[in-house]
């Protein structure tokens, strides 16, 4: 009788999960570039992001926005620390302030690019208060991939991240 009850229970119809919830969780699990949730919004995979920022409030703000999206964040306070950490740890993306003590973001980026090592092709996004016409060109000339001005707007930050990581192949 117990075996018959177990067999009947295994054949009993199960209540399906909500389509929206299961679709969103499947898309999140997929984590692939181009994945979308049940509402059609892009789902971004968890990434390793380096935040290079000397001002603690800006560093904490970026760290908070990124970690709320599930990203793994490392923070350093100057360009020399960025050069050192990128020598031995891979990042999917680097957010680099430009004006910092010890080593500025332009020199740090140039050094990372010249090294021909672990993070030489990692997108490096300038995050700077310098918003004049020539500032973007200076960042690109230093080897930075793109530019976002301060104060950083959440929507713009995630648009830039999606732009530069959409074709990333790291799982």
UniProtKB/TrEMBL annotation:
Q: Does the keyword Kinase apply?
A: no
Please note every region of biased composition (Low complexity).
Answer: 17-37
Q: Where is this region: Disordered?
A: 1-39
Modified positions (4-aspartylphosphate) in chain numbering: 97
- Can you tell which superkingdom this protein's organism belongs to? Eukaryota
Response regulatory domain: residues covered: 48-165
**Keyword presence, Cell cycle:** no
Q: What CDD domains does the annotation carry?
A: REC_hyHK_CKI1_RcsC-like
User: Gene3D superfamilies, from UniProt?
Assistant: 3.40.50.2300
Q: Quote the SMART domains the UniProt record gives.
A: REC
PANTHER family assigned to the protein according to its UniProt record, in alphabetical order: HISTIDINE KINASE (PTHR45339:SF5), HYBRID SIGNAL TRANSDUCTION HISTIDINE KINASE J (PTHR45339)
What is this protein's name? Answer: Response regulatory domain-containing protein
Q: What is the lineage of its organism?
A: Eukaryota, Cryptophyceae, Cryptomonadales, Hemiselmidaceae, Hemiselmis
